[in-house]
Design brief:
The chain is of the alpha/beta class and about 260 residues long. It is built from nine helices and twelve strands. The radius of gyration is 18 Å and the shape is globular. The model has no long low-confidence stretch (mean pLDDT about 95).
Length: about 260
């Protein structure tokens, strides 16, 4: 096994500071393999505990607990609908010290200083003004990416698209049954900035060209644990500026290919 645990290594990097609001997106399958090869079981709760200690009482942790079944008319149940965004998010969702936010498509398991503001968010939009993604901008939150390419799973990119406006997306409403935290069921409608399939927008390998540019600019920091597990760190305001510039000055060419329809 490596001489230092993953979270010990992460703390030594010094990326995460006390008071940070951290949005964690991850795929820990390969990390679990690294541990298993040494006869050790990866303890996800210990990972989360260590992240809590890094940000301290003034910090905030957000784990995406997204589920897109509501778009297909599948009822959302606040307590029962599972996350579709990985094992670490599932572990956070199952902890008593984390609370799930209410959005049926883009909920988060949250802990820390911004807990109440996040949990009380009731926006019907997914990415626009007043949403959790918008709040991240105001707090200059940071993104920690574990086991993925630099911008893979960084859904904040869609917030920037929504705020700036892009030709290959449009707002669409989805309605289905919604059971809230108290068990009350009702019809609810939520909006998402969805892809226009007629324009065939296809992301460029997790927005790889933009990620490469940001790494070269030093606005994405990257390292590998055990020369095997990629990790990346960035401020959302840097993501906002880079995505906005590519949309306005480069027709999103470092994000997507799409058909230009006149």
């Amino acid at each position: 096994m490596a001489s230092i645990s993953f979270t010990g290594w992460l703390q030594e990097l010094g990326w995460i500071k006390g008071g940070h609001c951290v949005y964690v997106t991850s795929d820990i399958l390969e990390l679990a393999k690294v541990y298993r090869e040494q006869g050790i079981r990866l303890n996800m709760n210990e990972m989360i505990n260590r992240l809590q200690s890094m940000v301290g009482p003034g910090g905030t942790l957000l784990f995406p607990t997204f589920n897109w079944d509501f778009c297909r008319g599948v009822p959302f149940d606040y307590h029962k609908t599972p996350t579709q965004t990985g094992a670490l998010s599932k572990a956070a969702l199952n902890r008593p010290d984390f609370t799930r936010t209410s959005h049926p498509l883009y909920s988060f398991a949250v802990w820390g200083a911004h807990h109440d503001e996040l949990v009380n968010d009731c926006s019907a939009d997914s990415f626009g003004p007043g949403t959790i993604f918008d709040k991240m901008t105001g707090w200059n939150a940071v993104v920690l990416v574990i086991g993925l390419t630099p911008l893979q799973g960084v859904t904040y990119v869609h917030h920037v698209e929504n705020m700036v406006g892009v030709p290959y997306r449009y707002h669409k409403a989805f309605t289905a049954d919604y059971t809230d935290a108290r068990g009350k069921c009702e019809k609810r409608t939520y909006r998402m900035y969805v892809r226009d399939l007629d324009m065939d927008p296809t992301d460029l390998g997790g927005f790889a060209p933009l990620a490469k540019q940001m790494q070269e600019d030093g606005t994405i920091l990257s390292a590998e644990y055990c020369d095997r597990i990629p990790c990346h760190f960035m401020h959302v305001t840097d993501v906002y500026d880079a995505v906005r510039k590519d949309i306005l000055e480069n027709d999103s060419r470092k994000l997507y290919t799409y058909k230009h329809i006149k």
